[in-house]
């Protein structure tokens, strides 16, 4: 209850500060919450942007494809590097170094290669989600106690049994944390890719409103996109809690 009250108090303080700052600023550059609410109402009623449902579905579909590809490639690459000590020592530092490179530098090349359609946004979301998932799997495999694996094998457990009964419980919390980070970054990658250059999607609508100085619509579109990000993170946090409870 105290946490909820503190969160509501912080939200009220931020909204009050935003209202004061928005009223004092240039209306072309900033708007207060009292001006955003009518714009948000018109947006949800499809008055200002009738293409909102189609754009929203497109963005969600791109996020789903990008994340699915990131999970498949990240799990495969992470387990390959983790199970093979030589490959892990050779390629693990290179994966970490590539992850440290600012991801936005890759987008112009992706846009030139895939064009302005959905493929470049999916590729950018995949690229952002792939590295944290791979590194999380690699770290999870390395943190498994080898003595537990040795004892299980000594008692006759097969490879599959050792993986599901010994390795997976030991690395699950790290793995789920990496999957959660990968999901958040895949969402960010798709939305940022649409903002930087797209013909459709939520990012394209945000870019359109910003270019025409429709600040109220711009903020309303950002809030709708923020709801997607927060919703995906809430789902990932629920899965993370279940994984933590299972490992305990």
Describe the protein in words.
The chain has a single domain (36-247), classed as Orthogonal Bundle (MetI-like fold), CATH 1.10.3720.10. It is built from ten helices and no strands. By secondary structure, it is mainly α. Helix 3 (52-83) packs parallel to helix 6 (118-142). It has helices spanning 2-24, 33-44, 52-83, 85-100, 107-114, 118-142, 146-154, 159-196, 202-211, 215-247. The two termini are 26 Å apart. 83% of the residues lie in helices and 0% in strands.
Distance between the termini: 26 Å
Number of strand elements: 0
User: What is the CATH architecture term?
Assistant: Orthogonal Bundle
Q: Tell me the CATH superfamily.
A: MetI-like
The whole-number mean of residue pLDDT values reads 84
Gross morphology: elongated
User: How many helices does DSSP assign?
Assistant: 10
Q: What structural category characterises the helix and strand content?
A: mainly alpha
